[in-house]
Amino acid sequence: MADGKKKVEAITSMEEDFAQWYTDVVLKADLTGYTSVKGFMVLKPAGFAIWENIRNELDKRFKATGVQNVYLPCMIPESLLDMEKDHVEGFAPEVAWVTKGGLSDLPEKMCVRPTSETLFCDFYKRDIESYRDLPKVYNQWCSVVRWEKETRPFLRTREFLWQEGHTAHATAEDAEKRTKQMLNVYADFMEDFLAIPVIKGQKTEKEKFAGAVATYTVESLMHDGKALQAGTSHNFGDGFAKAFGVQFTDKNNKLQYVHQTSWGVTTRLIGALIMVHGDDNGLKLPPRVAPTQVTIIPIQQKKDGVLDKANELCDRLVNAGLRARLDDSDKSPGFKFAECEMRGVPARVEIGPRDIENNQCVVVRRDTGEKVQVNLDELEDYMTKLMDEIQTNMFETAKALRDKQTHTATTWDEFKDIAANKPGFIKAMWCGDRACEEEIKAETSCSTRCMPFEQEELACTCVHCGKPAKKMVYFGKAY
To answer: Is the pLDDT of residue 143 over 60?
Structure first.
């Protein structure tokens, strides 16, 4: 067990230093690696497998709503990017530029896509002519580059993987409906598949996406009480269409501008999984997203019959539809236990000579640490039900912590005290004034996370300035 203990001791306690704990887990769970290109990460097999499961499940849910996948270029000409002023200003500090092609200077410099709104507008301008061509409901899985000053694996890297949905509609009503529909897809996915509770709402004018009419968001709370924007859905109205001349002929043979939406989530979701569910033993993955749901660990595996039985159990679980693997390496059982916990495998099955004699095995849950002896004849049914139990328990545990770290402030003194001493969300009333919003952030480092769809009237006046309140807002310090 000494090797296993050493592996766990390599993780800084989250109570001691949460940021270092996060970095330790990312590296020790072998999710990513650093590269010679500063700010860029290698997604190792363990990390990429999580992203594959996220991607595959989301893709299935997208397609159930009529979404089709496409792929657009990774380069954007400067003249194309400049056609939407607000959009350009929002991304200008993060753009990476390419000025040479081979040995020759380019006639026009190109940016490596930070996002693809301008590319889709150029595409739609060429592809849409009539109302019969609408709606266009497209999505692409790709990477983007944003030149972040400070980086952290998964949370902020200069290149990251994501999906970006881009749709075009004949009416404002259709665009708004799609914008909220995709936000709901995200929220259901995060709670059902990732076991991460979220708050759904609208961003303020200050926090919305550059060039959007409205931005909707799903906000999650990490274990340390900081907020993380888990996904966004934007209604662009016809602003981009007017800037790029994306028009169609309606049923009355009149030219109209399309109404557009955009929505996306990124590999940041892996960072959210770590910070919502992890503990001082490492990663803790909900079964539905876990690349390996069950690890079979043979005890005294050199003894006759042990490896054969372990292989048999692994095959049975795989045939029952579980993602199971056998760890038959020559590492000590203690090291294997610690490694299994570090990587966040939802459950492990221990099987040794005495267990075989008694026709049983030991099942250990990652979420609670509970150990149970299970009859081998009942293993498939037990493990299948256990996966659902762990999934539900992890969501309820995360929700309970989120609710415990959600506070209400009705006075400015109360708000400042909570912001200084209690991590988490702060619910408070707000007047709707941007200057007031900026003052709140300047004084407390708390930004507006969202104006939730489910509004509460906590008071009649703004928590900061005392003017009549317009909205209840979730505030918080954020990643």
So the answer is: yes
Single out the residue of 52, 44, 9, 50 nearest to residue 27, CA to CA.
44
Closest CA to 464 of 419, 406, 421, 415: 415
CB atoms within 10 A of CB 377: 10
The average pLDDT across 362-376 equals: 98
**How is residue 390 written in tokens?**
């762990």
SS3 letters for the chain?
CHHHHHHHHCCCCCCCCHHHHHHHHHHHCCCEEECCCCCCEEECHHHHHHHHHHHHHHHHHHHCCCCEECCCCCEEEHHHHCCCHHHHHHHHHHCEEEEEECCEEEEEEEEECCCCHHHHHHHHHHHCCEHHHCCEEEEEEEEEECCCCCCECCCECCEEEEEEEEEEECCHHHHHHHHHHHHHHHHHHHHHCCCCCCEEEECCCCCCCCCCCEEEEEEEECCCCCEEEEEEEEEEECHHHHHHCCEEECCCCCEEECEEEEEEEECHHHHHHHHHHCECCECCCCCCCCCCCEEEEECCCCCCCHHHHHHHHHHHHHHCCCCEEECCCCCCHHHHHHHHHHCCCCEEEEECHHHHHCCEEEEEECCCCCEEEEEHHHHHHHHHHHHHHHHHHHHHHHHHHHHHCEEECCCHHHHHHHHHHCCCEEEEEECCCHHHHHHHHHHHCCEEEEEECCCCCCCCECCCCCCECCEEEEEECEC
pLDDT at 2 over 60: no
Question: Phi first, then psi: what are they for 77, rounded to 5°?
Answer: -60, 145
pLDDT of residue 322: 98
Residue-wise pLDDT tens digits, 172-215: 999 999 999 999 999 999 999 999 999 999 999 999 998 899 99
pLDDT of residue 82: 86
Residues forming a β-bridge with 39: none
Would you say how long the chain is, in residues? 479
- Residue 376 CB-half CA count within 13 A: 18
Residues 293 and 265: beta-carbon distance below 8 Å: no
The token pair that represents 102 in the structure block: 């081979």
Which residues make Cβ contacts (< 8 Å) with residue 285, sequence separation at least 6? 50, 273, 277, 291, 343, 344, 345, 346, 366
Q: What is the C-alpha separation between 282 and 25, in angstroms, rounded?
A: 5
- CA–CA separation, 229 vs 269, rounded Å? 9
pLDDT band at 246 (very low <50, low <70, confident <90, very high): very high
Q: How many CB atoms lie within 10 A of CB 435?
A: 10
